[in-house]
Every structure is written in structure tokens, then in C-alpha cells.
């Protein structure tokens, strides 16, 4: 499955509790809208670690990396290519 | 005196009051916005002592709606945006707001459905009112015993509880806090705490009163954003509950940053482990760190440990604020001797009227103008107060009465641990067995044996947990306090 789809699936399941009625596009703001809350951030970091083998350092936990599926995707691509 | 007039009394029009993202508001601009908002509320039929709901996370509009409500002599009712619609409905049934104010982005369809029969006021109405340039409203006099706000407390029950705060309460508590923390016009507070929580509201009150400025964190979920904004806006002060300091010290880049502007820290809302206070003090030797204690029932705050006594009186919440009489009394109503445990009882201008429409509950905690806090404490020979664990925080293990706090303090000395909570679970042999829950820094691999070893080396055998469980996240209430009841119920 494509990275974006895996992230989307994770968010729908864990942050929206399976509610597929929410229009979740690649650019939907995840933090500003409360889709991802403080628990969600921690779950997301664990998800990234377990599924992509990447540890997210504290300094990377920023909206530019986390605020949309597109941004998460770009962040993961860049991290994967570096390692 | 009207609380809004009191709060803005010393403000200089050209000075910055608020920074909210890319918007900066001077005190002059704030005055104009409040003036227009008073007009909008008035047009919507809000009069003396009518209740005005303010919904949502911190924003410039929250501040304007709050101050305009008080200016009109109406009653502000802040709602937490974290509350789910069913609970919000229970709260609204209790407080019966006449209108509700909020940003469009915060008022989602399920939230609007709760307030379906009320007028909803958003910045759109405010902007059109600014154009209409209404005549200035008459000054509304507010005697000290007039209701100013209904503060919803964080109870975990399905019942909503609202504390009745008067104009006199807010002004008395604001004066006390300013005096004990020495807040000045050149202070700039980074606000992470929500304004619907009394600790957050007190930051707003004290800094406006001194003509200082407040920066509203654009993101309270990601601590790095908060740290970047402290640097960008040169904030001088930060206030937080224990969970914020745990994250700051154990799970952020804060220890690696110099942040020279930051010179004052306020901590309240529960006991922060001494090891973390020591870490903070070691990282920021020049900073003033104030440990405080309070309750919504006392407007916000009751006690403060002066920064210069942080190391001489570790673990203490200090003494009563100026204007607050704090006593620790035993079951006979007599002040305790040093070392003896009793209940903290408070008197002062900040003690609120009690709970809205709950005379029995009010009579239990508010007796002849004194607040019986329900918090147990000891005093030392110099009169400094130390909170002891609440009754339910003791674990009965192998016949010993074990303080969960001491176990947690020991576990927190392991640097990879972000938060720790010990609870007792029924055990046929031990009476209660100690079960410890921890959260760890993301990406750390730490064997539970390492934590147990730390306990075995430092604690008597009866205090060593039987079991350690690693959680992704502690169950917490909206104020960031760990919910031990939820931990006890975990299978």
C-alpha cells in the first residue's frame, strides 16, 4: 500500500475512530481541526516507528511535518531517503 | 469596580496586550474591540447578569468576548473545547447561557447543535459592529459580591459543576498573585494553559492588570512549537501543570536550548516530582521558579513558595498568598502541630460563593466564609505547608501504608520515564499489590526490569511495585492530571 494510504488508514482508524464521513483529503489540517490531539500525536509517532522504522526526534515534531497527510508523507519520504 | 475596568486600568494604549498567531493587539485596539463586542452582546439582548457562553481554545476573540461580558455586568461561562457534545449539553442545562461566543472554526456542527436555540456570536458579527461605530456604553458598576463568571470544574462525573466567581474574587486573587510573583509591565507570558481553566484565566487577569503582554501558543499539542514561539516573541514567563513540565524536561529540545528571555516559571495544578523541579532549576539557574497551589473554588490560587526558597523548602507549596489566610487544621478544628496531618482551610477575598444550584455540596466545602479544600497537608516549624497524598492515593501493601507519590518520585529519577503513576490493586496475599504505570520517551527501549531495579535499590521491599506496565499515554483529565481511577480500572 502507498505510504499516504497507510497514513490515511491509521488516522481514520485511530483518530476518527472509523468515521469515514469526515472529508480527509491530503491537505486537510490535522492539528488545527483537532483531528489529531495530544494523544494522537504520540500514537502517530509510535505508528511511524513501528511501520517505517523511523524514530521522530523532538525537534521534528512540528506542524510543517505533521499537519496534513501530504506533509507527513513528504516528511517520511525525506527521512527514508536520508537513511 | 467593574473587573474589565480594573484589569485595563494601568494599560498604555500603544503597548502590546496580546499576540495570537500573526495578529498583534495593543491595549488601544483591545479597548476598541471590547467596546464593539459590548455593543454586539447588547444587541443580542444580553443584560445585567445574563450568562454568556465562551466556547473554544484560547484566541484573541476569547479574550474580547470575556472582557466585554464582564464590562456589561453579564456572567462569563467558559466552555472547554475538549468537552464532547453530550457533556456540553449537561453543562448548558446547568448554566443556561443566553448566547454563545466562539470562533467559526471551533463551533463545529455537533457543538452548534447543543446551542441550537441560542444566538451564536462569532468575529463576523464583531467586524460588522466595528463599522457601525456605536455610542460608548454606559459604565456598569459591579459591586464586589456580583457574579462575574461561572467556572466549570474538571470533574470526571456526568454531572456538571460550576463555581460562582464574583468581581471581588477576581480582583482580590489578581492582586495577591501579582504581589507574590512580582509581575511587571515588561513581562510577557507564553500561554499554554487554556483560559477556561482557572490557572489559565489567572494568567490573563494578572498580566492585563499590570499592562504586560500575553502570547497565545498557536499549538498546545506540539511542545516544540511552544518553544519556538517563546524564542520568536522573547517571552519572559511560562506557566504549566506537571504534565507540561514533564514533556518540557523529558521529551523536548528545551534542555538543549538557551532561551535567555525566559526568566520566570510558574507551576501549579498538582505536585511536580522534586527531581523534575531540581532538573529545571539546574537547567535554568538564573530563573525564578514558583511552585503554587490553588483551586477553582478559590478563584485560582491560594499559596506560593517564594522562588528563593525553592531549595530550602523542597516539596512545599509555600504559605498563603498575601490576603489569603491558610490554616491546616485537624479533626478537632485545631491548627496542627508540625508533622501532624490535617486539612487545608482557606479564607480571603478570593474564596468564591460556592457551587451553582448545589446548596448541599456548597455547605460541605464552604463553611462561614472558609473554604475546606479537602486537601490534606502538614506544616513545618516555619509554617510552610506540604500537601500529603489524598487518602485514596495510599496503597496498603504488606500491612504498610505506602505513599504512591514516593514510589513515583523514585521512578521519575530514571531519565527515560516521562510520567509515572502507582496504584493499588486488590491482592489476596498483600492486601493490595502495587501496580506501576509509566510512559517513556518515544523511541526509547527500556526494560521494565530497569525501572524495578531502580525501585529495589532505593525503596523498602514493601514499596517495590509488583508489576510495571508501559503505556503510550496516561489517561488524563482536561487539566493534564493523571486519572488514577481509570488506571485502577485497567485490566
TrEMBL record, chain B:
InterPro entries: AMP-bd_C, AMP-bd_C_sf, AMP-dep_synth/lig_dom, ANL_N_sf, ATP-dep_AMP-bd_enzyme. It holds the Pfam family AMP-binding_C. GO terms for molecular function: acid-thiol ligase activity. Keywords: Ligase. The keyword NAD does not apply. Residues 16-356 form the AMP-dependent synthetase/ligase domain. Residues 406-481 form the AMP-binding enzyme C-terminal domain. This is AMP-dependent synthetase and ligase. It comes from Oscillochloris trichoides DG-6.
